[in-house]
Design goal:
Helix content is about 15%, strand content about 25%. By secondary structure, the protein is an alpha/beta fold.
Length: about 130
């Protein structure tokens, strides 16, 4: 009688044991983080990035007809605003958010002073030659 009981209980225990284990699970892959692409390069010319609350090149000398590009690399907003206007050519970027670019083509020779109107201690100079 005992043998018969064990023959009945043993398969039942195996079935219950397998049922509690549940179906086999396959580990799921965690997607890799997607890298954000840097902003596209600005048009040909000179670059004066804004980074760490400063114009990285505080003085740039270019030939007349050259385009100068400023890209805001800070998380904070900035402007690129002329404070002098040789030949009447002034410029103002308005507010530039992070990664935004502003460009000016300088056609009139002279020395152009500019600053960030939000952070007036940020200053730069463009010297345009003939």
């Amino acid at each position: 009688m005992r043998l018969r009981t064990w023959l009945f209980i043993l398969p039942l225990m195996v079935v219950l044991l397998l049922a509690t284990c549940g179906p086999a699970t396959t580990p799921t892959a965690t997607p890799e983080p997607v890298a954000t692409a840097p902003p596209p390069p600005p048009a040909a010319g000179a670059s004066a990035d804004i980074q760490d609350f400063a114009f990285k090149l505080q003085e740039i000398t270019v030939a007349g007809g050259t385009t100068v590009n400023w890209t805001n690399r800070d998380a904070a907003a900035h402007t690129v605003s002329s404070t002098s206007t040789p030949g009447g050519q002034g410029f103002d970027s308005g507010t530039l958010s992070q990664a935004q670019t502003f460009s000016v083509t300088f056609t009139v020779p002279g020395t152009y002073q500019y600053q960030c109107n939000i952070h007036p201690y940020m200053k730069g100079t463009i010297v345009v030659t003939e």
